[in-house]
Amino acid sequence: MAHMGAYKCFKYGSQHFYWMSMRSHSKDYIRRCHLCRMNKQPTTLSDGVVTPLPVPRERFSSIAIDFTGPFPSANNTELILVVLDPFTGFTYLIPVSQNITSVATANLLIE
Ligand SMILES: [Zn+2]
Questions:
Q1: pLDDT below 50 — which residues of the chain?
Q2: Distance from the alpha carbon of residue 59 to the mean position of ligand 1, in angstroms
């Protein structure tokens, strides 16, 4: 027979016993219980399968973009828009404001 779970184990045990870190010890004990691991179904989603991105076939057929920062700036360009071509590894670094909109970002990419 398996345990009822960490919370119920702690709740029941705390009616009779108490020690420092009893809650985390209960949680740890339940997590490591061999019977529970063998007999209970997982209640969380599995991690899934890591699959690599498809390899692009030509330059700039796909790009990866990200913002880094904020960095100290005197001219209101605290972020850097990083545009990477995964095929060639070519990277554009575009200084932008923190208040940049998605439309303005798209216009920068089109230029
Ligand atoms: Zn158990």
A1: none
A2: 55
Looking at the domain assignment, is residue 87 inside a domain? yes
Identify the CA nearest to 63 among candidates 88, 36, 38, 32. 88
Residue 25, H or E segment:
helix 22-32
Residue 23, classed as helix, strand or coil, is helix
Specify whether 1 is located in the same domain as 26: yes
- Cβ neighbours of residue 35 closer than 8 Å, sequence gap 6 or more: 1, 2, 3
User: Which residue carries 């949680």 as its tokens?
Assistant: 27
Inter-residue contact 97 to 76 (CB < 8 Å): yes
**49 alpha carbon – ligand 1 mean position (Å):** 28
This prediction's pTM: 0.53
Assigned domain for 57 exists? no
